[in-house]
Specification:
Elements: H1 9-57, H2 64-154
Helix pairs in contact: 1-2
């Protein structure tokens, strides 16, 4: 039986490498998204803490300078929170885009794998057919030899 050789093997190798690169890019995008969400959560907690400090400070005596300072800090934290929200949205979009690219690369690898599976099956059936043909030839030669031997001995 002749050895199986898949003619699209170089294509399969290239697609597997592409899939590995896109998987790594997707993992990096997920990591960036998780970091952006963590940063957003940190800013939200900071804003909530500052709001509670401002609210608790109103119970005591009112100090206009402190109130103005807290209000400026609060606006700054709110602006930073908005930037973090935008960063989360951008990171999510980048993650989804890299996910789609990874899925396309994965599908391309699966297509080549299916082609290889089909080619292997076809090769196997051809090899079995050749083997059966050889067995039939051997059986035919044995029968012919027996017939020849029986005609020689009968004469």
């Amino acid at each position: 039986m002749k050895k199986f050789r898949f003619p699209l093997r170089p294509v399969a190798v290239l697609r597997e490498h592409q899939q590995a690169r896109t998987r790594e890019a997707f993992a990096a995008a997920v990591h960036d998204f998780v970091q952006a969400e963590a940063q957003l959560a940190k800013k939200r907690n900071e804003r909530e803490d500052l709001a509670s400090v401002m609210h608790d400070g109103r119970r005591e005596t009112f100090r206009p300078a402190d109130a103005a300072s807290f209000w400026d800090s609060y606006r700054l934290v709110c602006d930073e929170e908005k930037k973090c929200e935008k960063a989360v949205l951008d990171a999510r979009a980048a993650m989804e885009q890299s996910r789609q690219i990874y899925l396309e690369a994965h599908r391309a690898v699966k297509v080549v794998e299916q082609l290889e599976k089909k080619a292997r099956s076809q090769h196997r059936s051809e090899a079995e057919r050749e083997s059966q043909k050889e067995s039939d030839e051997l059986a035919g030669m044995r029968v012919a030899r027996r017939l020849a031997d029986s005609t020689v001995t009968s004469t």
